[in-house]
Amino acid sequence: MKYLQVGMTMKTYLAKTNEVERKWFLVDAEDQILGRLAVKIANILRGRNKPIYTPHVDTGDFVIVVNAEKVRLTGNKETKKTYQDYSGHMGGLKVTTADVIREKKPERLVRAAVKGMLPRNTLARHQLSKLKIYSGSEHPHAAQNPELLSA
Q1: Is 114 in contact with 38 (CB distance < 8 Å)?
Q2: How far apart are CA 64 and CA 139, in angstroms?
Q3: Does residue 5 belong to any structural domain of this protein?
Q4: Is residue 27 part of a domain?
Q5: Please, are residues 101 and 83 in contact by the beta-carbon 8 Å criterion?
Q6: Is 48 a domain residue?
Q7: How far apart are the first and last CA of the chain?
Q8: Residue 97: count of CB within 10 angstroms of its CB
Q9: Residues 37, 25: contact at Cβ < 8 Å?
């Protein structure tokens, strides 16, 4: 085993944006718990599953989520959990429960959960754009040959 001599420094690898190789992953959200699924998706979007992970560089992959309307919420979150929309005007706050959102736009449940697990900065907004969510089992990204992600 070699020891560091005085004056020697360790090299730290920092990924560069143009060197990152991006893959596509397919996630089936049917009967998966929303929060646990969102953690896995957020880690892939950030690139935390790769050895070249660098916090200030987007090293993440693309994620396709299908069957978003069949994701599970535990306990009584279906009726108690609320989502807020604010128009910016007085009296413009709309509060909606999770069951109403599941009926109207089920993709929003998954997107809101994943967004909450990303850092609040411009890099995270770019990483969130690599997330593709579909309520049914069909998706238009077959040409990218997505790799099935086991849960």
Answers
A1: yes
A2: 8
A3: no
A4: yes
A5: yes
A6: yes
A7: 40
A8: 14
A9: no
Instruction: Report the DSSP pairing between strands 82-86 and 93-97.
Output: antiparallel
Residue 43: is it exposed, middle or buried by C-beta count within 10 angstroms (0-12/13-18/19+)? middle
Find the domain containing 130 and state its range.
Answer: 23-73+106-148
The total number of structural domains in the chain stands at 1
CATH number at residue 39: 3.90.1180.10
The backbone torsions φ and ψ at residue 37, rounded to the nearest 5 degrees and listed phi first, read -70, -40
Return per-residue pLDDT of the chain as tens, 151 residues. 566 666 667 788 899 999 999 999 999 999 999 999 999 999 999 999 999 999 999 999 999 999 999 999 999 999 999 999 999 999 999 999 999 999 999 999 999 999 999 999 999 999 999 999 999 999 999 999 999 997 5
What's the confidence (pLDDT) of residue 12?
A: 86
Quote the tokens at residue 47. Answer: 């690139």
Residue 78 belongs to some domain of the structure = no
Q: What is the dihedral of CA 63, 64, 66, 70, to 10 degrees?
A: 30
Query: How is residue 72 annotated by DSSP?
Result: B
Position 44: which residue type?
I
Are 86 and 92 in contact, with CB atoms under 8 Å apart?
yes
